[in-house]
Design brief:
The complex is a heterodimer of chains A (271) and B (368). By secondary structure, chain A is mostly beta strands. Chain A has helices spanning 2-20, 23-26, 29-32, 176-181, and strands at residues 46-51, 54-58, 67-73, 81-87, 95-98, 106-117, 120-123, 130-133, 141-148, 153-160, 167-170, 187-196, 199-213, 224-227, 232-238, 250-259, 262-267. The longest helix of chain A has 19 residues, at 2-20. With 368 residues, chain B is mostly beta strands. Chain B has one helix at residues 2-14, and strands at residues 44-50, 53-58, 66-73, 81-86, 93-96, 103-115, 118-121, 125-131, 137-144, 147-153, 159-165, 173-178, 182-187, 195-206, 209-212, 219-222, 230-234, 241-251, 258-261, 264-266, 270-272, 274-282, 285-299, 306-307, 311-314, 319-331, 336-344, 347-348, 352-356, 363-365. Classes of the chains: A mainly beta (271), B mainly beta (368).
């Protein structure tokens, strides 16, 4: 009887010792079957748009990750350095704006999800490279000056933002095929606003672009004009009714155009 | 057996396995039983088995070690509470015997298994059910100038009987039966401007026996044209600056009594301010003006104005003059809207508006 009790006590102590041993020491299945912390890679990772001083990175939200690590290099085969750690958040955790860029320079990006396991950061698989140049991917302006030159006419002097791509503007007598498809090409929208306390009045005038010029002297009156990024363009427009610029509290404008092969608009309302 | 129990306890304590699924995970519905693992969700059906019980059935999930059942009162979920843990992966259902009488429920059921000593759950299986026979909801709405629309709903019911009376306290007599859980009954045996009261009772077979629900609430309404028709006369001068906006509203004779409110409030948008919003188009130019206005005063004869109280009635066939006031002047354009909140019959409509145009077709509309 005594012998069997002693035997049972010894067996129990062995069982407890085994049970409290670290997992790795057991050498059994848990260590071998341990799954990676993040089982999926990031999907849809890309540097999708940019300006001269910002490149925007985007990826699909990954619920299983605690966040995303972002890396950047100056060339595809260069050294990728970590530039950010973005915490997972269903609302905001799938976008990053890299503002430490030099205008005109191309950057290469990779990303990987991470997970915090018992206080330790476990990294997931790296994505493929996505590259982007720090230039304007959407039409933008640096400066605009508007002058009324007749009862119904204005001239806009626009300095386009750069570095970037050509902006193509059109006169009303422009390319028939394109003006059929994009009815607003060749038109300028001028928005005068008068605000007084809680009252707001507006006049939105559709004007026809009747001349385009790179020097403000010789105007072309037909077709499109490609204006390089960073340069200046003069645009002459006419309204159907008499204009009276100057009394408004704010003056805005909107010009449909082509930029980087896409139908867009340059507008003061984007500022 | 003892060894297995001690081992599993020790594994749980050391946290092995938990690490692999420690990240954030998202579940359907409002219930989060714990970390999610690779295990299929059960396919669940539900059946009423008594006044206070519901039977849930599912096909056993491969690899499952058990199931957890959460319950929320009502059909749309919300405050879920765990009501059962079935520690048998081969189980094909369970019975919830602790229901309230005649009540709708939503259940969320998760299969679970153990992964590295840690319990992990499937995605949810969601099912609605009811104990007993649910008290019907009843809504009574004017359908036309000679019919009333009675909407009844009792989830899970086989039949709902509808009763009517000329007075709130009865006597009620049965006018029809809806052979579904959700039905709109048009009562054409009514007279214009008459007031009628309705109530309903639902029936359902439970274990082969037909059981009835408690009576619904009694709801009444008056027969009138359900489409509020108010014509508007624009009494303002176009193209001049103004701080005052004046309109004459006339309710058509077939309308029900309406109520005009000084302040805007709608179920969808909550409180809202009134605005004048006008425009004029000349050639290629569009002129607009916009200003916040208050419903300042009203008149019943167009001559004598009184300060607008919280609300005023507008009887069928009657007219009322409304004066709105802005703090700052704007140019008046006679095409546009002024927001206005009108309650029609027994129902306060969503943010509405007076719509005016130079062609004289001005009217009140429910949509701003």
């Amino acid at each position: 009887m005594k012998k069997s009790k002693r035997y049972a006590a010894a067996l129990l102590s062995v069982m407890l010792a085994v049970a409290l041993m670290p997992q790795a020491a057991l050498g059994a299945s848990p260590a071998k079957t341990k799954q990676p912390a993040v089982t999926e890679t990031l999907r849809g990772f890309s540097a999708y748009t940019a300006t001269k001083d910002c490149i925007c990175l985007h990826w699909n939200y990954l619920a299983e990750a605690d966040g995303v690590l972002l890396y950047r290099a100056d060339s595809a085969k260069g050294t990728f350095k970590r530039i950010a750690k973005v915490k997972a958040d269903p609302d905001t955790g799938y976008e990053y704006h890299d503002t430490k860029v030099e205008p005109g320079k191309t950057y290469y990006y990779k990303a990987r999800p991470y997970q915090i396991v018992k206080g330790k950061l476990i990294k997931g698989k790296l994505t493929k490279v996505s590259k982007k140049k720090a230039v304007y991917y959407h039409a933008a302006t640096e400066a605009v000056d508007i002058q009324q030159i007749g009862e119904k006419e204005v001239v806009l002097c626009i300095t386009l933002a750069g570095p970037g791509f050509d902006t193509e503007m059109f006169c009303v007598g422009g390319d028939a095929a394109q003006t059929d498809r994009y009815e607003e090409l060749g038109l300028l929208e001028l928005i005068q606003s008068w605000r007084s306390g809680a009252a707001l009045e507006k006049r939105i005038t559709q004007m026809q672009i009747i001349g385009l010029s790179l020097d403000g002297e010789e105007y072309q009156t037909q077709g499109g004009l490609k204006v390089p990024a960073g340069s200046r363009v003069y645009l002459k427009a006419a309204a159907g009714e008499v204009l009276a610029l100057g009394s408004e509290t704010s003056l805005d404008w909107n010009i449909p155009c082509f930029y980087h092969g896409k139908y867009e608009a340059i507008s003061s309302l984007d500022d | 057996m003892v060894l297995a129990a001690v081992l599993s306890m020790a594994l749980a304590l050391s946290g092995a396995g938990a690490a692999a699924f420690a990240g954030s995970a998202f579940y359907y519905g409002d219930v989060n039983p714990g970390p999610m693992g690779k295990i299929a969700a059960p396919k669940v059906t539900a059946e009423t088995t008594g006044r206070t019980s519901v039977q849930l059935r599912w096909k056993p999930v491969k690899g499952a070690k058990g199931y957890v059942v959460y319950r929320s009162q009502g059909l749309f979920g919300g405050d879920f509470k765990k009501v059962k843990t079935v520690k048998d992966g081969g189980a094909s259902g369970c019975r919830d015997t602790k229901c309230r009488k005649n009540t709708d429920y939503r259940y969320e059921i998760f299969a679970f298994k153990y992964q590295n000593g840690k319990r992990v759950y499937s995605q949810t299986a969601s099912v609605t059910a009811n104990s007993g026979v649910v008290k019907p909801y009843i809504g009574v709405y004017p359908f036309s100038v000679e019919a009333m629309d009675i909407y009844v709903r009792s989830t899970g019911a086989d039949r709902i009987d509808i009763y009517r009376s000329d007075t709130q306290d009865g006597p009620f007599s049965k006018i029809g039966e809806a052979k579904s859980e959700d039905f709109s009954w048009v009562d054409e045996n009514v007279e214009f401007a008459g007031t009628y009261y309705y109530k309903a009772r639902a029936y359902k077979k439970i274990n082969g026996k037909t059981c009835s629900s408690p009576w619904s609430e009694t709801k009444g309404n008056t027969v009138y044209d359900p489409h509020l028709d108010i014509s508007v006369e624009d009494l303002n001068k176009a193209d001049v600056k103004t701080k005052t906006f004046l309109y004459k509203l006339t309710s058509k004779a077939a309308n029900a009594p309406a109520t005009i409110y000084r302040d805007g409030e709608s179920e969808d948008y909550g409180k809202f301010d009134y605005y004048y919003d006008g425009e004029k188009i000349i050639g290629g130019s569009c002129w607009t003006s916009w200003v916040k206005v208050d419903l300042d005063s009203y008149s019943t004869d167009g001559i004598h104005y009184e300060k607008m109280p919280e609300s005023i009635p507008l009887a069928p066939g009657d007219s009322v003059w409304l004066r709105f006031q802005a703090e700052d002047a704007v140019t008046y354009y006679n095409s546009g809207t002024v927001s206005l909140d009108i309650e029609y019959g027994k129902y306060r409509v969503d943010a509405g508006a007076i719509r005016f145009s130079p062609d004289g077709t001005s009217y009140f509309s429910y949509d701003y």
